[in-house]
Design brief:
With 168 residues, the chain is α/β, with parallel strands linked by helices. The protein has helices at 7-18, 35-42, 74-81, 93-100, 145-152, and strands at residues 2-3, 26-27, 49-57, 60-67, 70-72, 88-90, 117-120, 130-133, 139-143, 155-156, 160-162. Strands 1, 2, 3, 4, 6, 7, 8, 9 and 10 form a nine-stranded mixed beta sheet that branches. Strands 5-11 form a two-stranded antiparallel ribbon. The longest helix has 12 residues, at 7-18.
Length: 168
């Protein structure tokens, strides 16, 4: 782990600081693309990893900040949005890039071209510190979940179900 020099990650670091977060983006030689890989690289509990997931809800992007221990429940997301389950789809790679400016596996929780709807898994709030992607598949930063919720203005709501232990 070392401070990053990647331009995208440095942009996220500066954007975070502009939002009032005192963050330092770190880079790993190995991928932090999945929650288990990120937790292993950082040396934290997989629940402390923030997965920035993009879903299309009735044709509009919704960013869901989800604990690495959990899986987004599309039925709960549909209920939150007041739409039928069939109106909720995981965004494809092109939709993710268009909504966030990032590729799947490196989606940061902020720094998007436009502010989409943002939701946050309440399980993240149990930790003093969580780790989120910084725009690339091997860069992350630490932040308190309360500060992350504040700067993203994410609605904290139950949108998840736990992943089976063997899947972690």
């Amino acid at each position: 782990m070392h401070p990053t020099t990647h331009p995208t990650a440095l942009r996220i670091q500066q954007h975070g600081r502009d939002l009032g977060l005192n963050i330092t983006v770190v880079e790993f030689s190995e991928s932090t693309r999945t929650a288990p890989a990120a937790a292993a690289a950082v040396g934290c509990d997989v629940g402390q990893i923030v997965k920035s997931l993009v879903f299309m809800v009735d044709g509009h992007p919704v960013i869901c900040l989800v604990s690495g221990r959990n899986r987004l429940d599309e039925r709960k997301l549909a209920h939150w949005a007041g739409v039928g389950r069939k109106k909720v789809k995981r965004a494809n790679a092109e939709q993710v890039r268009q909504a966030t400016g990032f590729a799947i596996g490196g989606v940061a929780p902020f720094g998007y071209p436009q502010r989409p709807a943002m939701l946050m898994d309440p399980d993240l709030l149990q930790y003093d510190e969580v780790w989120a992607a910084a725009g690339t598949p091997n860069t992350v930063f630490a932040v308190s979940p309360q500060a992350l919720q504040r700067v993203t203005q994410a609605c904290v709501t139950d949108i998840c179900r736990p992943i089976a232990q063997q899947a972690l």
